[in-house]
């Protein structure tokens, strides 16, 4: 006989195949959830699901084909791009709300349990001026600074490497922590386009993008050579 605890037989598994201890962990996690900081109207509705997912992720692998990745942008660089993206309908409060949200996201790069962040960006990103020369100078300095963080791996894909497997556009592969020890919570892929975004969650899809990122990362400069290249551009174009 098993002792009956809360209407459940202790020592047995529940309807979903979880032992009672594992079930209790999931229940406790669910009870801790609160409305996200991003649910304030400061960001577009189509982007809020990504912010919720990113908050739960323990690892991000980001390929950006045209810009400096969002998690390492300065506020002024982000503002310059957001103003261009919104165009004539740009409203100051909306722009500043989006900038603030981007800066809030970056808090996960530090702290006691920092996000593991790996990014590859196209060489064009350090040459394309966003927001003016002073903004670009500070942005490149920021890249050098962030590259020293132990949980950050920044790599630049140089022009000389030619065509590559990720040439069709930017994407993010999100990895999630084990809620229950030994049981992985899996991965998701986020792809953004002009009017919305797409999530991919099937294993065959996430595996393909995971492999794509590995290949483009291999083709890119090492983190050390990336930092050296950025410092050289800084000196030649903005600090000379």
What does this structure look like?
This is DUF5753 domain-containing protein. The protein has helices at 20-32, 48-56, 75-86, 92-105, 124-127, 133-146, 203-219, 223-238, and strands at 4-5, 8-9, 59-64, 116-122, 152-157, 171-175, 187-193, 196-200. With 240 residues, the chain is an alpha/beta fold. β7 and β8 form a beta hairpin. It has a six-stranded mixed beta sheet, sandwiched between helices. It has a two-stranded antiparallel sheet with strand order 1-2. It contains eight helices and eight strands; from the N terminus they run ββααβααβααββββαα. It has a single domain, classed as Endonuclease, Chain A. It is globular, with a radius of gyration of 21 Å.
Q: Give the spatial strand order of the biggest sheet.
A: 5-4-3-6-7-8
CATH architecture: 2-Layer Sandwich
Mean pLDDT: 84
Compute the gyration radius: what is it? 21 Å
Number of helices: 8
The proportion of residues in beta strands is 15-25%
Number of domains: 1
- CATH class placement: Alpha Beta
User: Percent helix among the residues?
Assistant: 40-55%
Contiguous runs where pLDDT drops below 50 for at least 5 residues: 1-18
The biggest sheet, with number of strands, parallel, antiparallel or mixed sense and barrel status, is: 6 strands, mixed
N→C terminal distance: 81 Å
